[in-house]
C-alpha cells in the first residue's frame, strides 16, 4: 500500500479535478505483477493501468488501491468491473469513496462477484492525499488551505514604515519559502488580497519547477478594483489571474481585461466580495484546493467565518513585539488547532492542523 | 562521559552555588572502577568521591570528568592533586573551567605531573548543565532564563475582562506546566511582577516533587509596594519571598516583614526597581539561575535591556488574535532566536534558545 501511495503521488497537480490514485497488483504468489497511477490526460484509472501492466498475472492476485474502485461509468468504464474481469481475487482499498452517495458501491459490486475486499489500510495517509478532492466532490467548493508566514510572536510584517512598499518583505527563510512553492504546486488556485499586491507586489506563481497540467489560477480579492496595472501580477497575466470584485467600473474592468486579467464581478457582502460566492465560483471551475496567502484582515475574516479547512503556519524564530503587524485581528472564541503537526524548515518551523475534516463532512 | 554527565545531573538543585560535576574512573584495563558526583553537603568534589570508590584500581586508569578538575584549595583540596596522588594516567575533561582566570590551570598541573589530558568530549552537553554556574562565577549575577507561555500568535491572556481576577488562567496544557515545574526546580530563584500577583495570585513554588537543598527564592518586582497581604505568596512566605521595591513606605514594609516576607529597597531607575541592581543583589545571595515568569511589560523590558541569557517559550496551538494580551510590546530591533530548539509537550510545543552564551562571555 505504501508503494501504491507513492504511485498516487505521481498524479499530484496532474489529475485534478480527479483524485490521485495509485494501484499495485500482486500475482497469486504475492510477487509484484503490475503498477499504475491515475493521470488525467491518459484517462485510464490507476486500476486499469495496473491491470494492463500485470496482464494475465492479475488472475488470482491481489490489488492494493489507495481509493475504493469506482463503480460508475464516467470518461472510463467502472474499475470494479475491470478488476472482476481480470480475475483478481482480493482487493485492499486504503479508504472508501469520500462521497457518501457512492461510498461502498465499488466494494459491494466486488463482493457480489466473489472478490475478498478489505478497506482501511493506511487510511489516514490516503485521505490526506485527497483532502481537496473529498471537499470538492461533496460540496463543489475548494478545500481552503490557509498559509501564514509570521514571527514567533505572530507578526507578519515590521511596524508600518519599516520596509519599502512594492517590495516583498520576507519574514521566513529560504527553506520555508521553498515549501510554500510546493504548496502552490499542489494547489489549483492561490488567493490574496489587493492590499498585499499594493504592499508587496508579489507574482504568486508556482515556481516549484514541478509539472502541472493546469496553470495555477491566481485570485485577487479586490472589491474596489484598486489593482495596480503595473503590478507584476497584471504584467504576467495570461487568463490565469482572476480579479474578484463587486465594482462595476467598466473602464477599470476593460483596462484589466485588455491585459489578460479575468475580472469576475461577484455578489457583495457588506460592500466586499462574498467569500462563499467566490468559493462557489472557484468550485464551478474545478478548483479542488485553494491556497490562501492573505494579510491580517482576510486571515481574520476567513478564520472567523469558519471558511478554513486546513492551516499551515510558518514561524520564523524571532520576536518583533506588538508594534509590528499582527497575523490576526481579534478572534472570539480563539481558534484551536487540534493534533497540530510541527515540522522544521531550516531555522524556521511550521505548525499545521486540519480545522475541518472534509472526509468526515463527507461522511455526514 | 555520558555516564559522567548522568552522574553530574544528580547534583541539580543540590550543589548550587557549586557547579554540577560527575566523574567516572576506569581501571588500567578499561573496566569501571569508580563513580562520583558532587553534592554540596557532602563537600567532596566528584573526582574525590570517584577516586574513593575506585580505591587502588584508579592507579594507571582513566578519569572522565564533566568539568576541568580544580587546582585550588577551597572547602576541599585541589582535585588535580588527588588525581595525581591516586596514580591516574589519563584524564578526559568535557570542558575547561568557565572562569578564564583559572581555566587551564587544572590541566596544566596534571600535565606537569605526567598525566595525559584531553578536553572537549561532549562539551556542549557539559556546558549546558552549568550555564548558570558559568554566568555567575564570572559576572556574579544569575543566568536569566525567561519563560513565556503563550498562544501560537503570541498572546499570554485573553482580552481584558475575559477571565476572573486572582485566578490563574492557563494558556498551555498540563505537560507544559509540568515542564515549568522542572524549570523552577532547576532554578535558585523565580521572578515575577506584582501585576501578575494581583491578576493571577500565583504561588510560584517548586511543585516538581524533586529534592532541592535551598528553598526556591520567590522574587516579586513591586516598585510601589502594591503586594496584596492576602495573596498566596504572602500567605506562604517563610523568608523565601523577596519583594524588591523602591518604596520607603515603612507601614507596608512592616506589614510584609511581619508576615515572613523579605523586603529589599533597591536603587530606582525611572521610578522602578533597577533590574541590574536586583540581579547584583541576587548574585550576592548565590542565585546562579533566575527563572523569569513575567507579563508583557517585564518581558519587554528584560528582552529590550539585553538582560535575558536563555529564553524558553511554550506555545499552545491556538490563535486568539490581536485583541488578546501580547507577550511582548514593541521590540526594535527584533530579537532573533538562533539555533532554536523545538520540543513537544502534549499538544503544546516549546521553542528555546540561548541569547547570550555565558560560556563564551567567560572566555572573553
From TrEMBL, chains A, B:
EC number, UniProt record: 3.5.4.26, 1.1.1.193
GO molecular function: 5-amino-6-(5-phosphoribosylamino)uracil reductase activity; diaminohydroxyphosphoribosylaminopyrimidine deaminase activity
Keyword Chloroplast: no
Reactions the enzyme catalyzes: 2,5-diamino-6-hydroxy-4-(5-phosphoribosylamino)-pyrimidine + H2O + H(+) = 5-amino-6-(5-phospho-D-ribosylamino)uracil + NH4(+); 5-amino-6-(5-phospho-D-ribitylamino)uracil + NADP(+) = 5-amino-6-(5-phospho-D-ribosylamino)uracil + NADPH + H(+)
Transmembrane segments: none
Database matches in Gene3D superfamilies: Cytidine Deaminase, domain 2 (3.40.140.10), Dihydrofolate Reductase, subunit A (3.40.430.10)
Pfam families attached to this UniProt entry: dCMP_cyt_deam_1 (PF00383), RibD_C (PF01872)
CC cofactor: Zn(2+)
Pathway membership: Cofactor biosynthesis; riboflavin biosynthesis; 5-amino-6-(D-ribitylamino)uracil from GTP: step 2/4; Cofactor biosynthesis; riboflavin biosynthesis; 5-amino-6-(D-ribitylamino)uracil from GTP: step 3/4
Chain ranges of the CMP/dCMP-type deaminase domain: 1-118
InterPro entries hit by this protein: APOBEC/CMP_deaminase_Zn-bd, CMP_dCMP_dom, Cytidine_deaminase-like, DHFR-like_dom_sf, Eubact_RibD, RibDG_C, Riboflavin_Biosynth_HTPR
Keywords on record: Hydrolase, Metal-binding, Multifunctional enzyme, NADP, Oxidoreductase, Riboflavin biosynthesis, Zinc
Free-text cofactor note: Binds 1 zinc ion.
PANTHER family associated with the record: 2,5-DIAMINO-6-RIBOSYLAMINO-4(3H)-PYRIMIDINONE 5'-PHOSPHATE REDUCTASE, DIHYDROFOLATE REDUCTASE FAMILY PROTEIN (AFU_ORTHOLOGUE AFUA_8G06820)
Family: In the C-terminal section; belongs to the HTP reductase family. In the N-terminal section; belongs to the cytidine and deoxycytidylate deaminase family.
Record's function text: Converts 2,5-diamino-6-(ribosylamino)-4(3h)-pyrimidinone 5'-phosphate into 5-amino-6-(ribosylamino)-2,4(1h,3h)-pyrimidinedione 5'-phosphate.
Official protein name in the record: Riboflavin biosynthesis protein RibD
Organism: Acidicapsa dinghuensis
